[in-house]
Amino acid sequence: MRNLHIINEEELKPLVVAKLNNIDKPIRLHFHQNYEISFILEGGHEYHIGHKTYSINDFDLFVVNKNQVHTASSLPGKPMTRFSVKFLPSLVQPFFDSADLLSLFNEAGRRHSNKIIIPQDRREWLIAQFEKMLDQSAYAWEVKRKLILCEIIIFLNKTIKNKFDFPENHQDPSPFNELIDFIISNIATDLSLDQLARFAGISKYHLARQFKERFGISIYQYILTQRIGKAVLLLEKGKNINEISDLTGFNTYSNFIAAFKKIKGLPPLQFKRQILKMD
Length: 279
Description:
about 280 residues; alpha+beta; Jelly Rolls; Arc Repressor Mutant, subunit A; 2 domains; five-stranded antiparallel beta sheet; three-stranded antiparallel beta sheet; 10 helices; about 40% helix; globular
């Protein structure tokens, strides 16, 4: 496993905890097999997850389902600092046999918001939990951080239930929301720049420029990432390669294989054998 060429090597690890300081560039649009918790300490502008866009305020927390395409951005001069926890569901499932607490992630962006506003009286407690997860000097550290992660997940489930936290509560109006919905709904078709510009009602040159200014990548790269994200979900469901190629809008089998390898670092069947089995 050590010699595998994976763009996101964290997909090989059951648990990754980090405190990321002064992020002043947009986070690369990506997706991964891990569930993710992202707790913003300060800075940040917008979090784009799936087809939703959320504003970022200090002490907002975001949950991201596995294989949800996402990125975050900061405003110039206001870099973002955050705690990030990524984990494979198999890490905590033994603790949650009697309660489906992982629905917090599986239903994020559908039945409830990806964004969770942390009550003021619980912020210091939550910061302390993340700091404990980073403290490798603690006795039985590997075990303790799993237990702390479970405690955080239970807390977040309670927070959502208490606040009836539905998606419309926090999604922000954006000139690109309808366009993103259109792209995702028509991902299996030939999405040309001309077609998207007609839908948006602006010239393709303005669309290309404004999209890259907003998301930090070209609209072509965005569509490609969304297509490969859907391909991974279809791989999990057991679809064959030819079916997946058609359902994700690639013109040929060879184009699909090349694009998948470009995004995930492995051809799709090898990715399924080596990565999905770890989930």
